[in-house]
Design a protein that fits this description.
Immunoglobulin-like, 631 residues, 4 domains, alpha+beta, 7-stranded parallel beta sheet, 13 helices
Length: 631
């Protein structure tokens, strides 16, 4: 063991080092640490008999802690989960401790560079959607992000996160901001200074509470008319774990995060929201990208242990996409039991900074995405700000998860994690940019869902009946309605949550028809769209065109067909690989549209010269245009 100390530290008797001391199996006491009633209730969802209590919950024997202290070493944190303590010690003190038979191994506390905590791009104001004007007086600047997560639907149905405890891990929080006046803060802990004060600054060169305040505001803020957090009715536990003095190029020690996770577990947190990620490391013993396997870094191990205790761990995927050294996800987003959250722009396209997967062992990451560019939130200095990063998409997603827990308190963390993934808009075709797609809190809650085939072909003159049914945990029986029904198509509501669409022989169908279906109960509704293709032949003037073709820098896609609404423009290679997309395009002020593509992919990288296909989908039709990009 003393040879290990010699390898890890310099031959300097005065220098102090940060180390983990790992104990053997005899170090644990026979009794678990005290857990709150809230913690036991949360664990009982998974294991009502034994409350998931195992050896990880047993405290380290006091005699061993006294032994460490008697060497003169300073204990930073005691980890029952890792059966270890992190210490500050000199070479001589470490050598003395290495001779203890109870200490099985000694290793450096890995010193980390935190991912970029500043805005990765210039944040710009985002205009609320045109169809959401009625909500503007309530949500103010936070309307768009709430609509993105589908939290507005949940709020309107009365779900605000009530009864759910969210633990926020960050750099510090300005809890005196007016937006938190009515927020329920039930516990605070500063793991840097070792006290309960999570406010204020620790150094003159950096407002330590800046980053934590913006993340907290996005989920827990409440100031009607200005800012509504996604889960403003939840309870919050605030943990100060990040040291920001000196900027982002400082050492960040993961043992603060681990200690905060154990604290959050013991007080009964249902969700951990950690807008923190670690990528580039400083000293010997650092992690590498091939260790993004879900099992190597201590912070990832701790995150997965928290998940095993029935906590939903939401963590930022990272802002490192364009980093030349570390262009992928960060720790602990590689955990197989955590929800790694990426970021999109307000038009649903991937944010240029959002870190991609996969993990080192080939798993898809991130797990989910939501809006992370131009998020409106509280500023630590007072007032409000628009800011960007996966640091902002993470609390928005955590808030959406809290709304689902509010609706269905029987859900376990892993059940909800799987629901969030499977109800993402790319669940059928996940990838390492968007993961399983955009998060939908209302679908994840499984209150009510109208179920019908996504697409259907109906021959002209045919009589067809398409069944519709609803599913979900809502106690009420849903009523069915429809909109945009063509002549000759009717909806039949059976009165029991099922029904059918009937197409008779006179149905006036276009080559591509979109029909809206709505299942509704008191204060809640779910909408789905059925895309019907037909064999009828109708010629439309002014079909979409793309010019100039060939092009070298910018391609313009333009067209117009009376009242058609443009849904999406997608650019793919001839082999079908998507390179660029514009979706959810709002209606214009005229009956024409014009969309420009700069010849770059969704990551902002110029695509190679060659043949590409432009897919244009509107409410009236869909079509494909072949274009050529030249140098």
């Amino acid at each position: 063991m003393t040879d290990r100390v010699a390898l890890l530290v310099a031959n300097d008797p005065t220098s102090v080092y940060n180390f983990w001391l790992f104990f053997d199996s005899t170090a644990k006491s026979s009794q678990p640490v005290a857990l709150s009633a809230r913690a036991l209730t949360r664990r009982a969802k998974v294991d009502p008999v034994n409350f998931l209590i195992d050896r990880r919950d047993a405290a380290i024997e006091k005699e061993l802690i006294i032994q460490v202290l008697s060497s003169g070493a300073r204990i930073r944190h005691i980890s029952r989960w890792l059966n270890a303590v992190s210490v500050e010690a000199t070479r001589a003190q470490l050598t003395q401790l290495a001779n203890s038979p109870a200490i099985s191994s000694i290793d450096l506390v890995t010193s980390l560079h935190v991912g970029d905590l500043s805005d990765p791009i210039a944040a710009e104001r985002i205009a609320p959607p045109a169809d959401a004007t009625a909500l503007q007086l309530t949500y103010g600047g936070s309307m768009t992000q709430n609509l993105f997560v589908k939290s507005v639907k949940m709020h309107n149905a009365g779900y605000t996160g009530d009864g759910v405890l969210i633990a926020m891990f960050d750099s510090g929080f300005n809890t005196d901001h007016a937006v938190f006046d009515s927020t329920s803060i039930v516990a605070t802990r500063d793991f840097i200074q070792g006290d309960s004060d999570v406010t204020g600054t620790d150094c003159a060169d950096d407002p330590q509470d800046r980053h934590g305040t913006v993340t907290f505001g996005a989920v827990g803020g409440y100031l009607p008319g200005t800012l509504i957090g996604t889960a403003f009715g939840a309870d919050f536990a605030l943990a100060k774990t990040e040291i920001t003095c000196g900027g982002t190029e400082i050492k960040i020690e993961e043992d603060n995060w681990i200690a905060a996770a154990e604290w959050a577990d013991s007080i009964g947190a249902d969700i951990i929201s950690a807008s923190l990620g670690y990528s580039i490391f400083q000293d010997s013993g650092s992690y590498t990208m091939d260790q993004l396997d879900g099992n190597s870094s201590r912070i990832t191990i701790a995150a997965d242990i928290a998940a095993s205790k029935n906590i939903l761990v939401c963590t930022a995927a990272g802002n490192e996409r364009n980093d030349a050294v570390w262009p992928t996800i960060v720790f602990p987003a590689d955990g197989d039991s955590v929800l790694a959250v990426g970021a999109t722009r307000p038009d649903s396209l991937l944010a240029s900074f959002s870190s991609p997967g996969p993990t080192a062992d080939g798993r898809i990451k991130p797990d989910i995405v939501t809006m992370g560019q131009g998020v409106f939130t509280a500023a630590s200095a007072g007032g409000f700000t628009f800011t960007s990063g996966t640091s902002l998409s993470t609390p928005l997603a955590a808030g959406g998860a809290a709304l689902a827990f509010d609706f269905d308190s029987t859900l376990t963390a892993m059940q909800l994690l799987q629901r969030i993934k499977l109800t993402g808009d790319r669940a059928d075709n996940p990838d390492n940019n968007y993961g399983y797609g955009l998060m939908d809190a209302s679908r994840a809650a499984h209150i009510l869902q109208v179920v019908v085939a996504e697409s259907l072909h109906v021959d002209s003159g045919a009589n067809v009946e398409i069944p519709i049914h609803t599913e979900g945990k809502a106690a009420e029986i849903a009523s069915l309605t429809a909109f945009d029904l063509p002549d000759g198509v009717t909806l039949v509501d059976s009165g029991n949550g099922t029904g059918s669409l009937r197409f008779d022989s006179t149905a006036q169908l276009l080559p591509l028809t979109r029909i809206g279906l709505v299942a509704g109960i008191t204060n809640f509704a779910d909408t789905a769209f059925l895309i019907v293709s037909s064999s009828v032949s109708i010629a439309y003037p002014e079909a979409p065109i793309a010019y100039p073709n060939p092009f070298d820098q910018t391609l313009t896609i333009a067209g117009g067909s009376s009242d058609a609404t443009l849904f999406a423009v997608t650019i793919v290679t001839v082999s079908g690989e998507k390179v660029w997309e514009r979706v959810n395009i709002p209606p214009g002020t005229s009956d024409t549209f014009s969309i420009a593509w700069d010849g770059r992919n969704s990551s902002g990288v110029p695509v190679a010269p060659g043949v590409y296909l432009v897919l244009v989908q509107t409410s009236r039709s869909s079509g494909t245009i072949k274009v050529v990009k030249v140098r």
